[in-house]
Design goal:
This protein is an alpha/beta fold. It has a single domain, classed as 3-Layer(aba) Sandwich (Rossmann fold). 43% of the residues lie in helices and 18% in strands. The protein contains 6 helices and 5 strands. The protein has a 5-stranded parallel beta sheet with strand order 3-2-1-4-5. The termini are far apart. The mean pLDDT is 94.
Length: 159
């Protein structure tokens, strides 16, 4: 059974993330969305909050599960018996970082492949960082994130 890991901070999950996930779910028999607990970034939401935002939005995919992870991604992949890592590429600017990460992961564990998936072009400019910036200034983020995420952003920025 082919299994891939779709890792990320998902702070918060966007429609672009969900588009990449839908593509992965068609390519693999099993997909695990892996929410990074210890993100190098300073996340707005805790890992538990991010997990809770992701779960209802992947319920329509019968072959997708969601969990959190910490530590090295390739070690998590091996523990999960995954064949591949899925990474979304929005633009050329993402490529250098993702390429270097894929090479490092290959060095650490050659058995795990990294596949790059491009989202639909309507999501190519959407990032979690930009969505948070728009939400912080009271902008409408409903075109970029699911309703439960938009509500969580509104709540986070009106505290």
């Amino acid at each position: 059974m082919r299994h891939c890991i779709y890792p990320g901070t998902f702070d918060p999950i966007t429609y672009g993330h969900l588009d990449v996930l839908a593509r992965a779910a068609r390519l693999f028999e099993r997909v695990t969305v892996a929410v990074a607990e210890t993100a190098g970034k300073a996340p707005l939401f805790t890992a538990a909050e991010r997990l809770a935002m992701v779960q209802p939005n992947v319920a329509k995919f019968p072959n997708v599960t969601v969990t959190t992870f910490s530590g090295l991604l390739v070690e998590f992949c091996m523990a999960q018996k995954a064949d591949a890592i899925i990474r979304g590429l929005r633009a050329l600017s993402d490529f250098e970082f993702e390429f270097n990460m894929a090479l490092m992961n290959r060095h650490l564990e050659p058995k795990i492949e990294t596949l790059f998936v491009m989202p639909n072009e309507q999501f190519s400019y959407t990032s979690s960082t930009l969505v948070k910036q728009v939400a912080a200034y009271g902008g409408d983020v409903g075109h970029f994130v699911p309703p439960n995420v938009a509500m969580a952003l509104t709540t986070a920025f009106t505290r």
